[in-house]
Amino acid sequence: MNKLLVVCGPTSTGKTGLAISLAKKFNGEIVSADSRQVYKGLNIGTGKDLPKGAKLKYLWMKRFGYYEIKDVKIWGYDLADSRHSFSVSQYLKFAERIIADIIKRGKLPILVGGTGLYIKGVIDGISTAEVPKSGALRKSLEDKSPEELFENLAQIDSIKAAVMNVSDKKNPRRLVRAIEIAMWRVNHGSKGSEMKNKRIDLDVLQIGLAANEKYLNNKIEQRVSERFKEKLKNEIANLLKNHVDWEMQSMSSMGYGEWRDFFEGRKSEKEVIETWEKEEKKYVKRQITWFKKDGRIKWFDITNKDYPESVEKIVEKWHNRADA
RNA sequence: GCUGAGGUGGCGGAGCGGUCAAACGCACGAGACUGUAAAUCUCGCGUCCGAAAGGGCUACUCAGGUUCGAAUCCUGACCUCAGCA
């Protein structure tokens, strides 16, 4: 069976660095699973860590390109215009094709990132990913309260309504999507209920990188100030000049949205940096809650000096294993 | 030194006699999550007992007082800020 290596975990655990060295050892190529690195022009804040002057290169496929870091190909950056919205479904389409391509070329695909849903989507599939979003429907629902939305959903798909958990019942975004899916099913009859989970058949090894909170918090502070020094502010100013708006999805990224208050004169640089740091720290916790539920992940503590060797050993064993 | 404003939970900030363990926001803790996921959402957050309902205790700078009842009114002390000297 074809193999897929995954490196996941919270932000600032050095996933990319580890992945690069693994790629070198095991003849692999990296596929980023990061919902923000997909945006063109968001480089510093999303931590693309590109060498100076790096350019997107293309293989036979014109639609997707890769960067090269230390001679390792890395896919999944710059998939979308920063003025557009992006979603898991687009990501999945991309990932499927590129992973297949990497395998075809005889290399090991290494999926790396902190966006849990994207990784899960690649591994397990998302059965409703194909039902398209309906701008008109979303627009018509945008002023409704969660209660009204829930009522609405219950009328179309009572089963889905019953199955939703307490927090999602009050989550307008989730409710709207649920209604969207329910409507789509209604309009597509039996075809609608036969949606298949299009997951790829792969032998997956998931490596998780972890560290204690204090260590990560330190790392974050360090990183934030580095990114600030790298002129993230200029990057944002540039984005704004190119008609990227504060309201756009890309600008809700950490390290970007927080700057609105600065650019509009409400906050000082220092204050922005403080809230940005806090956001990063909270994000780490959310990521941990997500990842720790997945029992398939093999965890490694990065404060342990020889963790790279331990990872290598496990990967090696898995890599050489003929087949399950 | 005089005059004016004020001192509320980890912070900001409501409340201005009862319905106040104290709105709301932040921070913090726990959690959810299948086309926005670095997004979005839920719950908890003085303290003690309880599975819960609920109950006890201590609380709005401090000390007194008025009142059936005070974070809210009065007196004094201490402190802070603004204006005048």
Commentary on this structure:
The protein is of the alpha/beta class. It has 2 domains: 175 residues, P-loop containing nucleotide triphosphate hydrolases (Rossmann fold, 3-Layer(aba) Sandwich); 59 residues, no CATH class. The chain is 48% helix and 12% strand. It is built from 13 helices and 8 strands. It has an 8-stranded mixed β-sheet, sandwiched between helices. Strand 3 and strand 4 form a beta hairpin. Helix 2 packs across helix 3, helix 5 runs parallel beside helix 8 and helix 9 crosses helix 12. It is globular. It starts with a strand and ends with a helix. The model has no long low-confidence stretch (mean pLDDT 93). The chain binds one RNA strand of 85 nucleotides through helix 2, helix 3, helix 7, helix 8 and helix 12.
Label the structural class.
Answer: alpha/beta
The amount of beta strand, in percent, is 5-15%
CATH class category of the largest domain:
Alpha Beta
Low-confidence stretches: none
Query: How much helical structure, as a percent, in the residues?
Result: 40-55%
Distance between the termini: 8 Å
- The value of Rg in angstroms is 21 Å
The best one-word shape is: globular
CATH architecture of the largest domain: 3-Layer(aba) Sandwich
* pLDDT averaged over residues: 93
What's the structural domain tally?
Answer: 2
